[in-house]
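Q: My collaborator sent me two sequences in one message, no labels, and asked for predicted structures for both. Can we handle them in order? The first one she listed is below.
A: Yes, handling them in the order given. First sequence, followed by its structure tokens:
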Amino acid sequence: MARPTLTAEQKQKMRSEIRAAAIRIINRRGLGPSDTKGYDEITIRDVIQEANISIGTFYKYFKNREELGQALWAEPVEKLRIEMQSDIESISNPADKIEALLQHYVRFSVENRRVFRGAFLFVRPDRHPTPEPMDLKDEVFYRNLCEAFVEGQEQGIFKTFVVHDMAQLFWAAIHGSLALPVNLDRYGFDNPQTLSSNMVSALLDMIKAG
């Protein structure tokens, strides 16, 4: 007799259970946000033993170990996108929208240190496969930046500039203000919160008309 087809909810539940098993291993081994080598030493066998599933079951839900690694950060990042979208929909002023977007990015890095470092500061080893490129327009942070820039230009409160280029610059700048003190901690940079706060002010001043 053929096995009954799993529902989407059942499939998601199993993916979440496998993900939770990997997180338990990470926590038990005391791996910090920047312990990429430590995570590299967690094997699929470790995960299936922790989740009490077969290796065949694992491969039904994840193509490989790298896809599981990406899933570890997916849920918090998706929550960030939802909160960000909900917040800016209640804001009418384009400059305030942009500030809110940037502050969400900063707050996420502070409140989710492990996820931020794992998902946003991770340097992919050469041996890892390169993921399929994603269209920037599919990313809510970029898209909302662009829409706020256009609104501000139409209202005459922003200078004239290429929206696509400026959105990339803003993203790179706020990300860099958070990453630089972490990646180059041998230098005496201000802490990420202070540096990013100053960066938000500088970016907004740069595009305001007049």
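Q: And the one she listed second?
A: Here it is, processed independently of the first:
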Amino acid sequence: MIAPRPRRIRSLPFVMLLLLAFALVAPRTVVAQGASTLRLNEILAAPARDWDGSGTFSSRDDEWIELVNTGSVPIDLAPWFVTDGDSVPRMGFSGTLAPGAVLLVTGAASVAWERANGQPVFGLSLGNTGDRVLLWRVAGPDTVLVDEYAYRTHECAADRAVGRGPDGVWRLEDALNPYTGTALPGPTGCAPTPGTPNSCGTVDAVRTTWTRLKRRWR
């Protein structure tokens, strides 16, 4: 997998102060800029189901993204945050993420974080006609863009997700809303896998029912 080239910005002093306040006092694993193993892993921008398990459907709360630790050591999540294309913080983190583990971030979790930190309450605010998801890390005086994915309209139709496989390739997960067009990424028949590793496009990728899908990630 080829890591994206870090891009530095210096226009978010409030964000840096806010996220640095979350930093743990205890020693932590330090990952060099540009060499981090924390990556975006899966995105579902246009929910049509109760993805967060609250019992109620919400187009705001049931959006979700997923992060993965592709490395061999735990990652301290305190310096990290995610945004959509407008680069406004939508979710900051705490704790650690184990090697190989995935972290599911729902719109509801984003709303809770925004309220707790005095931010405008929009949730993840993922556009339904295309948008970008960006993963940032506070590093000293800088805020570094570590990973990003720009999805297009056909990737964010109702209950379609796009996920990055173990080979680093992003694939359309359209089992719940089949895609018949020709734009890339093309249809795979794979289902979204919130909270579990992606297997779409590998030998164990299978079509699934909604009932089986819920059992897998709850």
